[in-house]
Fold this protein.
Amino acid sequence: MIETGKYNALTIARETSVGLFLTDGSTDILLPKKYVPKNYKIGDILTVFVYLDQEERPVATTLEPYIILNDFAFLRVSYTNKFGAFLDMGLEKDLFVPFREQAKPMEQGKRYMVHMYYDEQSGRLAGSSKIGRFLDNEELTVTEGEEVNLTISHITDMGINVIINGRHKGLVYKDEVYHDLRPGEKMKGFIKTIRPDNKIDVRMQKSGVEGIEPNAERILAELNASRGFLRLNDDSHPEDIKTVLQMSKKAFKKAIGSLYKQRLIDIMEDGIYLID
């Protein structure tokens, strides 16, 4: 079954003057000529994104959209009209967000976190900035310590609101963030705590001993890039450590302690030295 709003692996069935017709064995769909690869043969399998064109007909493309069905992305408004807003999704056709699905009125040129869903009434792909209604913390599918996929949602005074595995809401506390993050950015993270009310705290790094290793590697990389010396040690100000290494002072001290025990660095009054 060909799925609209998603990537599909389809077989090249035949060639025409307007492009290639691809098939899943029961349904055919057009890949317009401008997207046809240079080298191909009948029977080859192509991975394409399927969406509805300006005339609401299913069509395939080799372009990579900024968002897919049931996912979230931070998109820019191309224009608005009396029906709603149209957001640039990286394809020839924009993603329509009706007024009823706008958390606040959208303005041309501004970016908003949106969810792409299938509108049963119109049979079309649509977007919504009311992202909370697509997230559920009642029935959780994650456990503490688990590695998860994160999408940065909103940045607040308390911390970073994140979307976990495209299903749940979570929070990364601001004092545990050591580099700049942007809405829409995707990354890995770890479930830190699940509270009794099912609110989820998330961290960017593993806790405990496992969490030291990436920091140690980062320090070694910085030492190699800085000719084997960093003007940082146990007495350095936390902000200096955060500026240079994007980590907390606590994480820094654990990491250099580990490196020192492995006899990879020397810790001196003026900084740390890489041992040859």
About this structure: The longest strand covers residues 7-16. The mean pLDDT is 92. The radius of gyration is 24 Å.
